[in-house]
Amino acid sequence: NEARDPLYVEELAESLEQLKQDDSIDLEILRMDGCLTGTLELAYELKDSAQVTIGSENVSGAGSGTYLSHAQALTDYPHEYNAALLASTMVEDYKVNYIKSRGEDTLSAIKTDQLDLLATSISAFVDTTENLTPEDRHRLDVARSFAPQYRGGFGQTDLGQFMRGVTKATKLNQSVRDAAQQVVEAIEAAVINKNNDYQNSDGISIFYPQGGGGAGASYIDRHSKFIQATNWDRYLELQSGASLGSADWISTPVNDWSASNTVASGAFDLGRLSGNDIDIDSLAINEGTSKYFR
User: What is the C-alpha to C-alpha distance for residues 174 and 82, in angstroms, rounded to an integer?
Assistant: First the structure.
């Protein structure tokens, strides 16, 4: 607006709760047609406002859906559709009518009644990492580096792919890997439907910048319910400084998100590169296999 006063998630949650109390509006689906709206922080703060949230982990373009077809489905099958089914249909409609050429589409629908379980599993994961060695913290950051990150997201990382990477890091303590698997299973229970993008995103992102850290006061204040339930700010604090660069990352098993790029038609687009002697040091290529990039 003219005063440049942004709308924060806690303000949106308060307004939606006021609508529910004052006007008896039972909001079942909250769809956010905006970039980087598929975050766990956002969904958790809004979990009491709607049965399902729909958002995009990545940046998204205008016109990401045909609302006429959504309305037509309700008209044709008024008694068959519940919130979860309609939300899933919205994602399917998005797949058909809004496909980017680079396969970056990440729209997903999330059941909010599963988010407490997901938050509990994340908190348990954080607990298992409390006393890790610097080497193990480095291994966690390696797993993060192979999970999808979203352009313009300022540290937004796909939570599922990060946790899958942790489960495959055999040098980590088994309790950490088991806790990560519990998070993966909670994500699978929460995500109703999602787009199948080239990075195999799991449908929910989380703030996790390289080397941890970065959870300032504004992040904590604006996602207070999420922070209280997950202790994610503690994890970021513990990971502070666990940056890439040491030689032992090569021997750390991780979940390689580019593993499916084994055919030329599925070449991963590295974007525009210019200049000489470009060194890309985070591409895991197993011996005896081929990877395609463009």
Answer: 40
